[in-house]
Amino acid sequence: MDITSIEFGTGVLYAGVFNNGVNAGLYKFVDNKWVEVGLSDLDIISIARLDASTLLLGTSDGLYSFDEKTSTFKFLGFQGSAINSVAVSSKKIVLGTSNGVYESDSAPLYFVPIKHVKLSEGNFLSVAIYKDNPYKFITGQDNGFLYRFDLNTGTFEMLIVNVKCIYSLFITKDDKIFVGTENACLWSDNNGQSFKGFSVKVSGGELQVDPLNKNIIYVGSDKGLFKSVDGGVRFINLGLPNNVVFSIAINPNDDKELFVGTSLGLFRSNDFGENFTEIKQFSGYSVTFVAISPSNQRTFAGSELGLFVSSDHGETWEKSSLSIKDLDFIPYIAIDPTNSNTIYVVTFIDGLYKTTDGGKTWQYLGYSDLSITSISICKRNPNLVYMSTTESVYVSVDGGKSFIKTFNISAGLDGSYMFKQVVVDEENPNIAFAVGDLVIYGQDRVTKLLKKIYDEPFLYVTKDMGKKWEKLDLPNTIESNNAIYFDKENNSALLLTGIGILHYDFNSMRYYYFTQGFPDEYIRVVRFFNDSIFVGTDSGNIGKSSDGGETFKFHAKFDNPILSLFQSPTNPDTIYAGTSMGLLVSTDFGSLWRKATDLSDAIYKITGYSSNGHDIIFLGTDTGIFEIDGSFDSIRKIYDGICAALYYDNGKLYAGTDNGLIVTNDFKNFEIVKDIQERINIITTFDNSVLAGTMNGLYVISGDGVKVVLENTAIFDILSQNNLIYLATDSGVFILN
């Protein structure tokens, strides 16, 4: 049974219930209980107030009205159609249905389809009308498309939001737009020109940092072009949503100008990406790489049509004398940072070309047998050139005349290295970084064919021009490693990974990344420590927010689900994390994590107290309860059996176990408080009572008395504050007093 919508009445709260037509319909909450009102054989999908005494009900089989004065229903039409959303203004009513969008005057009611090709058919799940314009609305479809339409002027506009499905919409008085999607919430504060919020997951294959402002970062992906102006904390989508962005080039002398090569052409911006102009010459063709010469401002564009050059900021283009074969394309261009006439061009089929006269003539260097992914030229010594391929890294000391394979670390019998990019220190040719993925293959049990079974992102560094490569530590939680930007000044790097921008500090050898929310993440635990929010996710990420949850900074390394978090009662900078495979600890308030013990149990809960200046920690695990001192010198098992909940209070340790709720005063001998025959998720104490949240309600135990609150409701977490109790349940958040 799902509650799909709610609406307030006079002294009552109405709720629409979706239950596949069984005990569904309209309910009202009155006298502290829910009462069925009617339409129990219909699923209520949406509710909107028409006037002071009338509700409009969108159902799985048509539109109904409900008169609160007479408690009667009236069928208004649309039999056979699902009315997914109803929006009402002072002038108009708009319906989002399974068969298009309909509108009617507020009185009399007479619905007609909106005559626009994009709105006349399709499954529209959500509608919202602007507060300051009763004729203008936005509507979202089950395929993720978002449209804006004005019934008065007939103006139609598609808003760009990269999601799979739009379930709900809301517009504030100041025209801020909120979009509820399949797993997140987005919002726009610029009238729908761009969206940001709790699903921005930036990944892709192209990373560029503004050479004049390192806080500005551009990322190209298969969902368009993204931009950050705060060093990668927040990203906004600049558009180009139907384009795969292959390459980004920023003018090194005028960073307002950038070129973006995509799967459908080449685009230019003169205002930091706020607006783009399509260069018609490349319309419909893939432009796979763009590069701008720092000295003479010449722009090179590699495409499936060949190599082109512009000397007037992209106004006109001339085809280069470099000829490529049919079906070939240019995946990389590298311009000598000391001599703009020296250029290396990679083609997918033939390999590597070089010019020393600005492209008038070309020398073929070979390497058609290698899949070259990047070229990096040392500024201090431009004859020193690094080249990455899908399988290795090569170095040339003679300006590309010859290359020597330098990376010879084995990937094992079933593995293969996939190098994405190599970058050399511009002042020290001995130092270079290489990123990519180590792919492990195995045989499919059914088809017996070879398939990828494991993908490990990597970051290697050499300090001796490739004679030796050192593997640097990376979190197991990242999905891929696609590109790198090396910041020589700060001795740090930005890595473009499958979960966003990873910040790597080579001075401290620490890394972290930011996220605006938790895309595709299941949040296991949330805790407040010292005015910061800590979260643990199902994928093993541990995040910390210092801005009230708007952004999170992640430092996690291990890919085991985070089940519990606990702050040291002795040292507030020490945080413990229970995972499915043991205990982690951080001694710097969540910046660096390490395994604390060899214990490999799933740790469901952690609690403890301070004794003589050090911690005594208790772990509730899948095999029992363990007592550990804060120095981790000793581990003692004090209970044998499953323990999913723990709570320490004034010398007493309460535990939710397979024997029910138990307690100990000496941490040796336990006695049963209540024989609860179901999983106990959370325990706390409040006003001389013990509260135990279970999968079937909240047990309140006071002395010898026991009562159950919210029966048939799963209680996952309990928080008490200001004499109120907040319960996190499978039916939402409840407050008890």
What's the arrangement of secondary structure elements?
Layout: E1 2-8, E2 13-18, E3 25-30, E4 33-38, E5 44-51, E6 54-59, E7 62-67, E8 72-77, E9 83-88, E10 92-97, E11 100-105, E12 112-113, E13 124-129, E14 136-141, E15 146-150, E16 156-159, E17 166-171, E18 177-181, E19 185-188, E20 196-197, E21 206-209, E22 217-221, E23 224-228, E24 236-239, E25 245-250, E26 258-262, E27 265-269, E28 277-279, E29 287-292, E30 299-303, E31 306-310, E32 318-319, E33 332-335, E34 343-347, E35 351-355, E36 363-366, E37 372-377, E38 385-389, E39 393-396, E40 404-405, E41 415-424, E42 432-443, E43 450-462, E44 469-471, E45 481-487, E46 492-497, E47 500-505, E48 510-515, E49 523-529, E50 532-537, E51 542-545, E52 552-554, E53 562-567, E54 575-579, E55 582-586, E56 594-595, E57 603-611, E58 614-621, E59 624-629, E60 635-640, E61 643-649, E62 652-657, E63 660-664, E64 671-674, E65 680-686, E66 689-694, E67 697-702, E68 705-709, E69 715-721, E70 724-729, E71 732-736
Antiparallel strand pairs: 1-2, 2-3, 3-4, 5-6, 6-7, 7-8, 9-10, 10-11, 11-12, 13-14, 14-15, 15-16, 17-18, 18-19, 19-20, 21-22, 22-23, 23-24, 25-26, 26-27, 27-28, 29-30, 30-31, 31-32, 33-34, 34-35, 35-36, 37-38, 38-39, 39-40, 41-42, 42-43, 43-44, 45-46, 46-47, 47-48, 48-52, 49-50, 50-51, 51-52, ...
